[in-house]
User: Fold this.
Amino acid sequence: MTYTLLSDEELFALVRDREDEQAYRTLYRRYDKRLYSYCLRAMGNPDDAQDVFQTISLTVFDKRRSFVDGSFAAWLFTITRNMCLKALRSRKHKVEFNEEFIVPEEESAHSQDFLLKRALHTAIAELPEEFREALELRYFDDLSYDDIALTLSITVSLAKVRVFRAKKLITQKLSPILDELK
Assistant:
């Protein structure tokens, strides 16, 4: 069987029904970087992100029987979001979105577009939480609007509105900088 040709839902059915390790590893490789990135953005530091990420892997396997239909990606990111929120609540204080984790390490402070990237990350960090979260799910985690809606427990229309408004706010914030670069 060629696992890489199977959909997420088909792979997870093999995990759920047969505890197929190869199917689980294939799914893990498809999502590990995106899930860890989400955890890192939510938690604000690598140690906390790693702790939550490891918990998610166990939770997904433990709750495998609860996924019966729908989008596997939405179900997975809903678990991820809930685990991050739970971890943040247990720290008894809210961690601000830390944009330094989005800028790739190899990015040089002397590169031409460093200031623009920095301004973009600042603008994202300053968005209202509901807009920021929808935007991140769309562009950092590459989720569809349907999956964003399922993950955030909102309508598809509201997911689209939140992403649109986030982009509009970012554009307004960055317009003076973009005007200077022209």
